[in-house]
Amino acid sequence: MSRRYQLPHRVGWHRVVRPVLKFIFWHFILKTLFHITVEGMENVPQKPPYLVIYNHVSILDPPIVIAVWPVWLEAVAASDVFRRPAHAPLTWLYGVIPVDRGKPDRSFLDYVVGVLKQGFPLAFAPEGTRSHTPGMQRAWTGLAYIADQARVPIVPVGVVGTEDEAVTRALRLERPAVHIRVGKPFRLPPLEAWPVPRKWARRYNTDLAMYRIAALLPPEYRGVYHDPEWMAIAQTLDLDTSDVPATQAPLPIPSS
User: Fold this and answer.
1) What is the DSSP letter of 126?
2) What is the Cα gyration radius of the chain?
3) Which of these CATH numbers, 3.30.870.10, 3.40.1130.10, 1.20.1250.20, 3.30.1380.10, describes 8-235?
4) d(C-alpha 74, C-alpha 37), whole Å
5) 85 prior amide bond cis, ω within 30
6) Is 106 helix (H, G, I), strand (E, B) or coil?
7) Tens of pLDDT along 56-115?
């Protein structure tokens, strides 16, 4: 049974923490150091819950996605972030959900599912770690488990311009460009729809979701998710932002 989730900002002084953090980070840090443009905000669902997934190039990606989003997003970060002096206070104050990087953790997955089932929108980077270069890495299949259990819309987000070099330029006050693209929500087919073992089905569903992110990025950012055949399959998923019934028929499996 999953643990009961409580929003940190709903308890005592945490009520004012997130608005203050967002105001300071957005107006005095991000808008000062970067030239940020956002595209596709009309694709954000009107009602939660939903899952926001994005590519992860640098430490800037999570706070930028949170800062530009029109509502508060629950967020996931690697537990080692809480041990870094420069990052720990902010992640703790915001109320980020920690996860042990690289360690399969069913209780964590069920906890995140519980967050979504209670009606909260949640964001995380399925790659699990920063790439430091534009190209995307193979994603963690926990994404498919969460999506299958929570059955909520998934909102893909492509982040361009946050490479380590951009951070260096920002510190020189050059205001490098960062572009955020929000794609249309979609739902993955149930794992049972794939005529393959469940482990493979989780891999296929995870990759389908990641190809939706790749479609929002320039070619040099797609990394392992550059296959046009898979991208075409991913784009056939239902784009309805309301209550989309799960796909019952198996999707075609690419030969490559």
Assistant:
1) T
2) 18
3) 3.40.1130.10
4) 22
5) no
6) helix
7) 998 889 999 999 999 989 988 776 666 666 666 777 778 788 877 666 678 889 989 999
